[in-house]
Amino acid sequence: MGATMSATKHRDARGRRRVAVTGIGLVTSLGQGQADTWSALVEGRSGVRAIRRFPTEGLRTRIAGTVDFLDTDPLVAPALSLRFAETAAEEAVGQSGIGGKGDFPGALFVAVPPVEMEWPQRRALAEAAAENGDVTYASLQRAAASRRFDDWHDLFIFGTVADRIAERFGTRGSPISLSTACSSGATAIQLGVEAIRRGETRAALCIGTDGSVNPESLIRFSLLSALSTQNDPPEGASKPFSKNRDGFVMGEGAAALVLEDAEAATARGARILGYVLGCGEKGDGFHRTRSSPDGAPVVAAIRASLEDAGLGPEGIDTVNAHGTSTPENDKMEALGLTAVFGERTAGLPVTSNKSMIGHTLTAAGAIEAAVSLLTILHGRIPPTINYAQPDPAIALDVVAQARDVPVRTVLSNSFGFGGQNTCLVLGAEPA
User: Of these residues, 279, 359, 378, 423, which one is catalytic?
Assistant: First the structure.
């Protein structure tokens, strides 16, 4: 199909199936469900708090946006990620009204954090290996194969979260697990969009989830000098685009979107909450943790998403920024936005949800896409809190107070370590 085709209600200008969103599910440090998270966001309330899950004495960073209201045992990343994903998916699938109980008529794409045994499990394994002598590779293998560790085999396998979600909701085909750093949640949505456009499925359940707030993760990010050390007060630490920003704050949670072929959704009488109009991605091979100094990959990803949506820079109403609160990311994102939007940048509202929920890592792209859709539905842009000292080197219209304006399109940016850049354009009912 050529790009010169005229758009119709259920097809875009390229003749591709429009991708509608019919269900949204959210779990963040602000609460369970769309209502709790949205009300807190627009009120400018923070979910960042002192960590109580484990001792933090001696750590430079002692705060995070933790989800402390869902019982999970054990408190390890795979179990937490699964719990958050299930909770978000239940809300999204329930709202969509698609399929019957345990009979989702489409594919599953789940963004999950990298999986590895955490310190308590490593210690337990070492103690078991030492029961009959020295700890050696062979004794560790024998201990790991014993029945007492049977539960770990499933728990610490990369595909476990997706497999259990697929079993619970009855999704079709092989579930897809992916991990593309901080863009993972957006990538899961992109894969769902592409599968529907190709006609491979009429629906997709797309999830981003992350429960990685643990001592090892905190220490690793601290060693990279990536985390804020402004522990007191916790709610003031994440300050995207501010002059006194000093790093990101870890967060956790999940978001789930039910995507559908718009024609199929309309035919079954579903309420359409919005559309995924465009997806763009660009790899950056400059450095494992730093962006190219010229910002070219960021610019390319933003432009690709606009082109995919069939929009020019004038077609975006607001930007849900990646906005991590690290010195380099915020500067690079501002550079990218200025390159794409030019003089319009000064009047283009930009906000960062991470100021209130922290950086939810693998889940961030999905959570922020969900919030972008709620922004369109409610006609209100959530604020970037803690924006008290604007950075004179960043010439953006940062939304410091919730702003009531008509919103039909949102650019949602996700940029990750390893050069993973993914941008989504979310929109209201096409004209």
Answer: 359
Same domain? 123 vs 265: no
Q: Is residue 6 assigned to a domain?
A: no
DSSP character at residue 289? S
Q: Is residue 1 part of a domain?
A: no
Question: What are the angstrom distances between the C-alpha of 352 and each of 10, 26, 145, 285, 320?
Answer: 31, 17, 46, 25, 6
Residue 414, strand partner residues: 422
Select which of 182, 206, 279, 423 is catalytic.
Answer: 182
Q: Is 423 one of the catalytic residues?
A: no
- Please report how the helices 364-378 and 184-197 are oriented relative to each other, as an axis angle in degrees rounded to 10: 70
User: Active site residue: 10, 206, 287, 322, which one?
Assistant: 322
Q: List the structure tokens of 122.
A: 């490593």
Provide the token pair at 223: 């060693």
CA-based nearest residue to 169, from 60, 277, 93, 230: 93
- Residue 281: predicted pLDDT: 86
Note down the domain range covering 262.
Answer: 19-116+156-427
Are 379 and 144 spatial neighbours (Cβ–Cβ below 8 Å)? no
**Residue 146 DSSP label:** S
Tell me, yes or no, whether 402 and 364 share the same domain: yes
Same domain, 187 and 206: yes
CATH label of the domain that carries residue 236 = 3.40.47.10
Judge whether 153 counts as a catalytic residue.
no
The reported pLDDT for the residue numbered 200 is 96
Distances from the Cα of 210 to the Cαs of 28, 110, 175, 236, 324, in angstroms? 10, 11, 17, 23, 16
Quick: pLDDT tens for 273-325: 999 999 998 866 555 556 666 668 889 999 999 999 999 999 999 999 999 99
In the annotation, is 378 catalytic?
A: no
pLDDT band at 127 (very low <50, low <70, confident <90, very high): low
**CA dist 121 to 51, 53, 357, Å?**
21, 16, 28
Q: Which of 322, 305, 294, 429 is nearest to 373 (CA)?
A: 429
How far apart CA 22 and CA 131 sit, in angstroms, is: 55
In a domain, 112, yes or no: yes
Task: List the beta strands (DSSP E) in 92-221.
Answer: 107-111, 176-178, 203-210
